[in-house]
Design goal:
- By secondary structure, the protein is α+β, with helices and mostly antiparallel strands.
- It has one domain: Ubiquitin-like (UB roll) (Roll), CATH 3.10.20.30.
- Helices cover 15% and strands 24% of the residues.
- The chain has three helices and seven strands.
- A hairpin with a 4-residue loop joins β1 and β2.
- The longest helix is centred in the last third of the chain and has 9 residues.
- It is elongated.
- One of its GO terms (molecular function) is metal ion binding.
- Its cofactor is [2Fe-2S] cluster.
- Belongs to the 2Fe2S plant-type ferredoxin family.
- It comes from Paulinella micropora.
- This is Ferredoxin.
């Protein structure tokens, strides 16, 4: 069953007696769908996985930090996203992250980004800079 949008999922958060970590309030604005989700995430937990356990269906693809389907931009707060291999350090320093490998370092508010926007931010400067060769690579000789 999918979670309803604009519902605070914190009220159904499960307490794990063996886990004595901090919990942080996380708000995700799914810009493309016009929905907002929020609930508490335990310190060190991946944000995407934690929201999915509560029924929130958010965009993702690889779950490995390599693509940019789950890209977000931080509005308030900080994330630990050192595993976001799909984003350069430069792009991460501009406030972008990947939900699948991001964990909160405190209360956090983010919004989803268009995959093309993130891709263009990261690689756009490289397009149109090189000399084009016509023909198939096997034609070179």
């Amino acid at each position: 069953m999918a979670a309803r949008p604009d519902v605070n999922l914190a009220g159904i958060h499960e307490k794990d007696p063996l886990r004595m970590s901090n919990q942080y309030s996380i708000i995700i604005h799914w810009r493309q769908q016009g929905h907002t989700f929020s609930h508490k995430v335990s310190e060190g937990d991946y944000i995407l996985k934690s929201f999915e356990r509560k029924g929130a269906l958010l965009p993702f693809n690889c779950r490995n930090g390599c693509c940019t389907t789950c890209a977000i931009r931080v509005i308030n707060g900080n994330i630990d996203h050192k595993e976001a291999f799909g984003l350069s350090r430069e792009v991460r320093s501009k406030g972008y992250g990947l939900l699948c490998v991001a964990s909160a370092q405190g209360s956090l508010e983010v919004e989803t980004q268009d995959e093309d926007e993130v891709y263009e931010t990261q690689f756009g400067r490289f397009f149109g800079c090189g000399k084009l060769k016509t023909g198939l690579p096997i034609d070179e000789g």
